[in-house]
C-alpha cells in the first residue's frame, strides 16, 4: 500500500476525530454542530493552534492556554482512535468508494460508542444514519453486502431486519424475566408488544403477514387510543415453540418434504425475526419523529436493554450480514469482561457492540474460519 495513502488516511482520521469530539459533546445536548469551539472552563474561543488534533493537547500539556483548566484526555483519545481506524482501513482498501464508506462506518461507531458512555443513550440520527448508509451502499454498489440475498449471501436489508429482530427479542425476554414473567404496560400506539406479536405471527404465517398484522395492531391502537395487542405471556412463551415444532413433531416438518424438518424450523425462525425487526425499526423511527412517549403512571418497569441497542444492531446487520451475530457475541464478551474488571453491574452496551462491529467487519471471516478449523470443520 502506498505510504502517502496511509499517511493521508491517518491524518484524515485525526481531523475527523476532532469533529467527532464536537458531535459527542454537542449532539446529546441538542446543540448545533457548527460554530467555533470554546474552552468549557473559561468560555474563551479556541484558536486553530489550540485545535490541532492530538498535538495541541500534548503541546499544552492537557491544559487550556488561557485559564489553565484541564482538558479531558477523551479528546486526543477519540482523535487518535479515529486516526488508527482510518489507517487500518487504508491498509485494507485502496483509495475508493469502499474506503470512503468504511471511514463513515467507523466514524458513526466511534461517535455512538462515546455518546453511550456519557449518556447511556444512542441517538436516533446516528443509529438510523448508520443503517441508511449501509443500505445505500448495498443498493448503489453492493458494498459491503448486496442489497438483496444473492446465492448463499445474506442481503443488507434482511441482515438489518434479522439483527434488529434478534436484539429486540433479547430485550423483550430480558425484561420479561426481570418482571418475573409479569405482563408489562403496552405503549400506545406502538411498542415492544407489537414487536413480540410480529415475531410470533411472522414465525407462524411468514414475515410479510406477521408485519402486516402487527402494523394493523399499531393502527388500531392509534385509532382507539388504547393498546390492541396480544399479551407478552402468550407471544413470548409461544414464539420459541414455533421453530421447534417441525423438529419435535417431524410430520409438521415433512409438510416441506421428507427430511426437511430443519429447513422448516429455520424458515419459521427467520420469518419471526424479520417481522420483529421490521416492527422494531419502524416503531423506533415513529418515536424518533413523534418524540419520547414519556413516563407512564405507576411503578417504573425493569428494562434489560434499551431500544437504542436494537437500532444499532439493525444497522450492524446492514453492514455485516451474518457476521452481526459475531459482533453481538464479541460485544457480550467484552461487556462481561469489563463488568468484571470494573466491578460494575450496569454498563452501556453500545461501546461493546461497536467494538464487536469493528472487529467483525475487519476480521469476522478470518475469526470464523479459525474457529471452524479449530473444530475440525472445513
TrEMBL record:
UniProt GO MF annotations: aspartic-type endopeptidase activity
Biological process according to GO: signal peptide processing
Major location category of this protein: membrane
Topology relative to the membrane: Multi-pass membrane protein
Record's GO cellular component terms: plasma membrane
Cellular localization per UniProt: Cell membrane
Transmembrane segments: 97-115, 127-147, 159-178, 199-222, 234-256, 263-289, 320-341, 353-374
Coiled-coil regions listed in the entry: none
Domain of life: Bacteria
Residue stretches making up the Prepilin peptidase A24 N-terminal domain: 11-93
Protein name: Prepilin signal peptidase PulO-like peptidase
Biological source species: Thermus oshimai JL-2
Amino acid at each position: 500500500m502506498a505510504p502517502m495513502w496511509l499517511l493521508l488516511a491517518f491524518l484524515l482520521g485525526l481531523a475527523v476525530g476532532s469533529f467527532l469530539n464536537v458531535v459527542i459533546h454537542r449532539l446529546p445536548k441538542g446543540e448545533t454542530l457548527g460554530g467555533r469551539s470554546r474552552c468549557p472552563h473559561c468560555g474563551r474561543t479556541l484558536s486553530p493552534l489550540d485545535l490541532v488534533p492530538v498535538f495541541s493537547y500534548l503541546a499544552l500539556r492537557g491544559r487550556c492556554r488561557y485559564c489553565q483548566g484541564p482538558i479531558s484526555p477523551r479528546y486526543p483519545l477519540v482523535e487518535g482512535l479515529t486516526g488508527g481506524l482510518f489507517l487500518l482501513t487504508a491498509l485494507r482498501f485502496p483509495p475508493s468508494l469502499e474506503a470512503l464508506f468504511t471511514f463513515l462506518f467507523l466514524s458513526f461507531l466511534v461517535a455512538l460508542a462515546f455518546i453511550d458512555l456519557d449518556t447511556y443513550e444512542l441517538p436516533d440520527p446516528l443509529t438510523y444514519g448508520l443503517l441508511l448508509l449501509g443500505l445505500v451502499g448495498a443498493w448503489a454498489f453492493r458494498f459491503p453486502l448486496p442489497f438483496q440475498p444473492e446465492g448463499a449471501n445474506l442481503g443488507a436489508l434482511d441482515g438489518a431486519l434479522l439483527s434488529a429482530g434478534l436484539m429486540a427479542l433479547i430485550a423483550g425476554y430480558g425484561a420479561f424475566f426481570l418482571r418475573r414473567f409479569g405482563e408489562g404496560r403496552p405503549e400506545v400506539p406502538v411498542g415492544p408488544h407489537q414487536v413480540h406479536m410480529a415475531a410470533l405471527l411472522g414465525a407462524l404465517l411468514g414475515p410479510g403477514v406477521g408485519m402486516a398484522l402487527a402494523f394493523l395492531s399499531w393502527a388500531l391502537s392509534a385509532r382507539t387510543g388504547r393498546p390492541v395487542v396480544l399479551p407478552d405471556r402468550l407471544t413470548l412463551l409461544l414464539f420459541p415453540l414455533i421453530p421447534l415444532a417441525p423438529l419435535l413433531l417431524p410430520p409438521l416438518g415433512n409438510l416441506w418434504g421428507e427430511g426437511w424438518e430443519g429447513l422448516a424450523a429455520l424458515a419459521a425462525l427467520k420469518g419471526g425475526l424479520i417481522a420483529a425487526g421490521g416492527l422494531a425499526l419502524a416503531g423506533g423511527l415513529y418515536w424518533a419523529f413523534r418524540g419520547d412517549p414519556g413516563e407512564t403512571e405507576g411503578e417504573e418497569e425493569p428494562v434489560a436493554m434499551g431500544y437504542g441497542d436494537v437500532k444499532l444492531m439493525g444497522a450492524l446487520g446492514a453492514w455485516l450480514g451474518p457476521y452481526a451475530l459475531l459482533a453481538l457475541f464479541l460485544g457480550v464478551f467484552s461487556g462481561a469482561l469489563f463488568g468484571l474488571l470494573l466491578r460494575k453491574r450496569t454498563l452501556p452496551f453500545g461501546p461493546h457492540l461497536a467494538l464487536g462491529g469493528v472487529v467483525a467487519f475487519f476480521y469476522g471471516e478470518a475469526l470464523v474460519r479459525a474457529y471452524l478449523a479449530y473444530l475440525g470443520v472445513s
